[in-house]
Please model this.
Amino acid sequence: MFIKFNEHDLISFFESDPIPISTPEVGDFIYSIVDSRGVSICLTLSTYGKTCSIDLSINSNPLLEMNIHSVESIELLDQNKCLRIQQADHQRDVCIYNGTGVFVIAKNG
Model:
C-alpha cells in the first residue's frame, strides 16, 4: 500500500514543487514553505513507507519535529490552508491561517 494524496493539493499548500529525496519512483519527497517572518514548515513524505515527518522552525531554529507512522492519506482542507494527515486510528491537522505564520498541529480522535 501507499499514502493516498493529491500532488496538486500539496503543491498548492506548500506553493512549490516537491523535491525528490532519491528518484521519483521511490516515492520519497520533501515539501516545504517559509513565510515572510521566517516561519517554515517541512513535510518529508515516504509514500510507500507510509510515514511522514513535520518539522517546524523559526529563522532556521527548530521548534518541533513530529514523526507520523501508518499514514493512510493526506488531504487539503479549509480553502487550501490546512492539511489533514489521516492515520489508522486518528488524524492530525496542520494549518496556516491567513498568512499569519501560525501553524497549528492538532491530534483529533
User: Anything to note?
Assistant: The first strand starts at residue 4 and ends at 5.
